[in-house]
Amino acid sequence: MVLHELNQGLAAVADTARRSLVRVNSGRGPMRGNGSGTIWQADGLIVTNAHVVGRGALSVTLPDGRNLPARVLAADAVLDLAAVMVEASGLPTVTLGDSKRLQAGEIVFAMGYPYGVDGGSTGGVVIGTGADLPEMPINNREWIALSLHLRPGHSGGPLLDSAGRLVGINTMITGPNVGFAIPVHVVKRFLRAAIGAVEVPPNPNARAAIY
């Protein structure tokens, strides 16, 4: 019974998170790429990876199925972060978590469009956090190292804690079951510096944490 309740609770957390998950489409024709993004502000501000937006035509598919043209407000290739804007309002935003308090062993979920699967979710645990982790993809950077399998299409999507709060942005893998995400406090700094964006208020519809 306890396991069933835990399973149902985590599934509900993932279902809530899908409301602020978007597909990011870049390029045209056979070279068209797909990644993921997270709605940061209800007015159409979306966060994703810089490598997801690429250099071609850009559009975003919202959770309600609308496909809208998008423009890049800012991109940082070193941080691998990008801020993207679509002309929309009243969009469901993600609830922000505290990446500085993440600990090894905590359950996390990577959301995205792995291999094109709509709203796919992959579970795992935190290996460690910080700027001095072994096998880091880029040195002198803060990362969240994950024991989970990120796949093509997860890039730019949200990494969530067990309460469905955003704690990172999925970025890359360095092995079959080792992934890396950019901590959400790094994302906040990027947005403030690049476009003066402020933190979104807490989501009143967020579900309680699952322990």
What can be said about this structure in brief?
With 211 residues, the chain is of the alpha+beta class. The chain folds into two domains: 2-93, Trypsin-like serine proteases (Thrombin, subunit H, Beta Barrel); 99-188, Beta Barrel (Thrombin, subunit H), CATH 2.40.10.10.
- For the secondary structure, the number of strands is 12
The name of the CATH architecture of the largest domain is Beta Barrel
Residue windows where pLDDT falls under 50 for at least 5 positions = 200-211
Tell me the name of the CATH homologous superfamily of the largest domain: Trypsin-like serine proteases
N-to-C SSE series?
Answer: HEEEHEEEEEEEEEH
Overall CATH class of the largest domain = Mainly Beta
Overall pLDDT: 83
Main sheet, how many strands, which sense, barrel? Answer: 6 strands, antiparallel, barrel
Helix content: 10-25%
CATH fold description of the largest domain: Thrombin, subunit H
